[in-house]
Amino acid sequence: MRVALFITCFNDVLFPEVGQAVVRLLHRLGHEVEFPAGQTCCGQIQFNTGYRDACVPLVRRFARAFAGFDAVVTPSPSCAAMVRHHHATVAREAGDPGLPAAVAEVAPRVLDLTEFLVDVLGVTDVGARFPHSVVFHPTCHSVRLLGIGDRPQRLLAAVEGLTLVDLPGADECCGFGGTFAVKNVDTSMAMGADKVAAIRSTGAEVLTSADTSCLMHLGGLLSRGRAPVRVMHLAQILAGDDR
User: Fold this and answer.
1) How far is CA 243 from the centre of its chain?
2) Are 6 and 74 in contact, with CB atoms under 8 Å apart?
3) Residue of 47, 144, 50 whose CA lies nearest to 62
4) Distance CA 156, CA 158 (A)
5) Residue 243 has what pLDDT?
6) Residue 18, H or E segment
7) Domain 133-239 grouped into CATH 3.40.50
């Protein structure tokens, strides 16, 4: 099986350790991972803010960079959702007769890390150990667009020593929403404050999620509130990081 890592520009620039954790995890499970150097942004920011024309070269580049792989794994449900749900829309509107077919070939193979582990590899116990109490925040894109369900919780529950704590109001948005947090600061902060209060009420030592964008937002609020809660991407826990 040829497996590619789609790291996403957000992780590449701000959280490179998340991509490294994905590679370590998949290596431990016996899978080589390729990193196509031609990959760039998936176009989610442009698409969500209405600049669809600007998405076209990014969608074209994505389809070219990841052509030929059996699976394209990403530690970002939001970017996976962009590719699987919206690249086809961009391709249809582009006026490029070859682009829809190229997207249709690649997009269905783009999987969030938890989908790849549970659905493709058929594993929930990845051999990790993490002796801490953990609360999981399900992100909006992962729940509403990808429908990843309880895959992350099943993976976390199988980690040796980990205590998974329920999060009150888990299905509520954290308030990040990409450019929403920039254009609607007060609303974003209020939503984030509610989510942070719920996280702190659990008494968990660690907050985790499948998207670093939400973790950045919540981590900043937790840090400013001097909350004794570490923030780690799900891939880091599954890879056995504990620092």
Assistant:
1) 21
2) yes
3) 47
4) 5
5) 55
6) helix 16-28
7) yes
Judge whether 243 and 160 are in contact, CB under 8 Å. no
Q: Is the pLDDT of residue 63 over 90?
A: yes
Distance CA 213, CA 14 (A): 10
- Cβ atoms of 42 and 58 within 8 Å: the answer is yes
In the chain, the amino acid numbered 110 is V
Task: Write out pLDDT tens, residues 150-170.
Answer: 999 999 999 999 999 999 998
Band of residue 4 on the pLDDT scale cut at 50, 70, 90 = very high
Rounded Cα distance, 225 and 231, in Å: 14
pLDDT the model gives residue 174: 83
The pLDDT score that the predictor gives to residue 145 is 84
pLDDT above 70: percentage of residues in the chain: 99
Identify the weakest region by mean pLDDT among 77-86, 95-104, 109-118, 179-188.
179-188
Per domain, the residue ranges of the chain are 3-120, 133-239
- Cα separation, 8 vs 76, in Å, equals 7
**Amino acid letter, residue 51:** Y
Q: Which two tokens stand for residue 60?
A: 């074209």
Nearest alpha-carbon partner for 33 in 43, 15, 41, 21: 21
Place of tokens 């690249």: 87
Paired tokens of 227: 């909350």
Q: How far apart are CA 174 and CA 139, in angstroms?
A: 8
How far is the C-alpha of 27 from the C-alpha of 141, rounded, in Å?
A: 27
Instruction: For the chain, list the strands marked E by DSSP.
Output: 3-5, 71-74, 110-112, 133-136, 163-165, 206-209, 230-233
